[in-house]
Specification:
- There is one protein chain.
- Helix content is 32%, strand content 33%.
- It is built from nine helices and 16 strands.
- The strands form two sheets. Strands 7, 8, 9, 10, 11, 12, 13, 14 and 15 form a nine-stranded antiparallel beta sheet that branches. The protein has a seven-stranded mixed beta sheet with strand order 1-3-2-4-5-16-6, sandwiched between helices.
- Strand 4, helix 3 and strand 5 form a beta-alpha-beta unit.
């Protein structure tokens, strides 16, 4: 770790995954740091070297400082690791900023966050100025989250979680030799679509019982997938849940069920334009809790990380809030 203290203002703690997005993380940092110096901001820098290290560093800083300010450079995975450390009430005074440098960037896409280092630095400077004056920063979001329960064990998600097809595609992409090339060519959404169409022919749907908020029940002979969302995008740009609200005490559901192979392909293509809501066999709902009983084990994921094969899970809305400084693409 290295640091630079240029004024008496509050320290900004950068946690950076240098290899995110095929080494985009370090490239973006090289563009950003001169801007931080230009604005005379106080900051320190931590570069991650292995998975979960971002969680470890954020946890360490939370133990040392009551209201730390985190600035994250990385992909959805790096962000998820830091958010894991911030999800408890003890971190309610922490503030988070995020400059996306990954391949999928569904979190940033769902909130229309900027990818521009210049704007990010300018917003950091504005935040620093407002806090020194005791003012409330503009674009502060009280970010909610959801969680999955598996045999009394809970795993949080901040973008989405799912069971079935969407999870199997996520797993296929993670292990595909095409992923690095797709990242370099900025073809992540296309890779998801192509692997998705392949999975349509190989993924076996199964009968399932879905219980929403303990009362509404959907029985389906063929559950293709169910995804639960805090933000609307998944898979590098598919707006499966256009009705998702990251500040609500609810999760948004997208369910594909009782349709054939052609119907699935049409539904996936339609979802790119938000038109899947008009298709038979697609249900878009909001709820606080949903429980899924599948007649066979299906692939499960949260925020793009596979959790294995399961036949009984539930998704729920979380109660905690995370202070996110909303660095938008453009002010309106």
């Amino acid at each position: 770790m290295r640091s630079m203290m240029l004024t008496e203002e509050k320290m900004i703690h950068f946690i950076i995954n240098p290899t995110a997005g095929s080494d985009k993380g370090i490239s973006v940092w090289r563009d950003l740091e001169p801007e931080l110096i230009k604005y005379s901001l106080s900051y320190d820098v931590f570069f991650t070297q292995y998975p979960t290290q971002a969680t470890e560093e954020a946890t360490r800083l939370l133990a040392c400082e009551e209201a730390p300010v985190f600035a994250i450079l990385g992909g959805d995975g790096t962000l998820h690791e830091v958010l894991e450390a911030l999800k408890d009430e003890s971190s309610a005074k922490a503030t988070l900023m995020y400059l996306p440098c990954g391949s999928g960037n569904d979190f940033a896409r769902g909130l229309a966050l900027t990818k521009d280092p210049m704007k990010f630095a300018a917003d950091l400077a504005a935040y620093s100025s407002s806090t020194k004056k005791g003012e409330t920063p503009a674009h502060m979001l009280a970010l909610s989250h959801g969680f999955i329960t598996i045999q009394d064990e809970k795993e949080n998600f901040f973008v989405s979680g799912g069971i079935g097809f969407d999870a199997s595609v996520t797993e296929a992409i993670a292990t595909s030799p095409l992923k690095p090339l797709a990242n370099r060519l900025k073809l992540g959404t296309l890779a998801y679509l192509l692997l998705g169409i392949r999975q349509v022919f190989t993924e076996k749907s199964a009968p399932a019982r879905i219980i929403v908020d303990g009362k509404k029940q959907l029985n389906t002979d063929r559950l293709f997938f169910l995804s639960a969302h805090n933000l609307k995008y998944e898979g590098g740009g598919f707006p499966f849940a256009p009705h998702a609200n990251p500040e609500a005490d609810e999760i948004a559901l997208c369910i594909f069920y009782d349709m054939g192979i052609l119907g699935c392909i049409v539904g996936l293509l339609a979802s790119l334009f938000g038109l899947h809501k008009y298709k038979k066999g697609v249900a878009l709902l909001t709820c606080k809790h949903v429980e899924i009983f599948s007649e066979k084990c299906r692939t499960v994921h949260t925020d793009g990380e596979s959790l294995g094969y399961l036949d009984h899970i539930s998704f729920s809305a979380g109660k905690g809030r995370i202070r996110l400084l909303y660095t938008k693409k453009a002010d309106k």
